[in-house]
Amino acid sequence: MYAQMIKSEATTDDPEKLKEFQARIDDDIKVEPRDWMPEGYRKTLIRQIGQHAHSEIVGQLPEGNWITRAPTLERKMILLAKVQDEAGHGLYLYAAAETLGVSRDDLTEQLLSGKMKYSSIFNYATLNWADIGAVGWLVDGAAIMNQVPLQRTSYGPYSRAMIRICKEESFHQRQGYDIMMKMAQGTEAQKKMAQDALNRLWYPSLMMFGPSDADSVHSTQNMAWKIKMNTNDELRQKFVDQTVPQAEYLGLTIPDENLTWNEKKGGYDYSDPDWSEFFDVLKGNGPCNVDRLEARNKAWDDGAWVRDGLMAHAEKKRAAKTAAE
Ligand code: FAQ
């Protein structure tokens, strides 16, 4: 649907302006909020940045759930800081999206009604403490792999938000790997928990990069516009190549019988995730889709009194200022 929309909207834009715009992109000149841009460029950015922001916000839920049950005070403080960082990432990204002419309330409404997506990974449960390690190691690891190239994305506000976010994500990945190290070097029961977490979260982490290139709707146009810097399969391959030695160091086994080093391509051959599961999760049928949307709707409703209070305060100040003039 989006592909059609982008195509038709791109063709209604002035061809001369489109040519100039593409030339600027090709020269790596950043696009800023007040610059002319094709409607398709604006809309696909709102979609991608909006989904990204929602992912950061919904992504707090699987880990936030474990703050009260972290095994030590230190682990609790670290996890709390990480989850707060994710909230901050959501806010930078909503602010970047707002520069494109959409309001944060609009985006929130579309998340809460299920119209807008967020990353599939957050529809999987975190069942125990080892899962928190695996989320940091694999989920933040995949997020960084995707986000480091996005620091060079063509839209200025998105690119600048990504620079800050990537610094924090590296810390997140390391704290996850540190938890995995402790578990993998612990008792037999802890090692089993670490392996079990890897077994359950490996394929959902591979799905984070999106469908295979053959099924990706947006990649071609978005790479031409430098909204996206790599294809989904390129980044997935890089993630596998980076993560396999890390698993080996932990003494854990990636749950893929077909995983083999391919000398010719200089990377691992690996099994694809079950794509029917991926598309099913996108349709709302993952293990936690309903819970996640319920939790976000409840948080929004519970926060109504704060928003109403702030608006009333702002209104009172405005009225007082008008009366004084
Ligand atoms: N989940 O044509 P493509 C994080 C959809 S942040 C859900 O290939 P595109 C930090 C896609 O929207 C994680 N939907 O799409 C953290 C499209 O549907 P639409 C989020 C997905 O946009 C860690 C359709 O499939 N990161 O984790 C997914 O070119 C720990 C066709 O796909 C970002 O958002 C998916 N995995 O490529 C937080 C990064 N994949 O919209 C808390 C920025 C695809 O037409 C705790 N985003 N779809 O209805 C991107 O780089 C891209 O949007 C991709 C997808 C690569 C995700």
Describe this structure in words.
With 325 residues, this protein is mainly alpha-helical. The protein is built from 14 helices and two strands; from the N terminus they run αααααααααααββααα. The protein has a two-stranded antiparallel sheet. Helix 7 packs antiparallel against helix 8 and helix 7 crosses helix 11. The longest helix is centred in the middle third of the chain and has 29 residues. It is globular, with a radius of gyration of 21 Å. The structure holds Phenylacetyl coenzyme A. Phenylacetyl coenzyme A (FAQ) binds next to helix 3, helix 7 and helix 10.
In short:
The protein has 325 residues and is an all-alpha fold.
Overall average pLDDT: 95
Summarize the main sheet: 2 strands, antiparallel
Topology as H/E string?
A: HHHHHHHHHHHEEHHH
In whole angstroms, how far apart are the ends?
A: 52 Å
Number of strands: 2
Strand content: under 5%
Number of helices: 14
Query: Which secondary-structure class do the elements indicate?
Result: mainly alpha
Largest beta sheet: strand ordering: 1-2
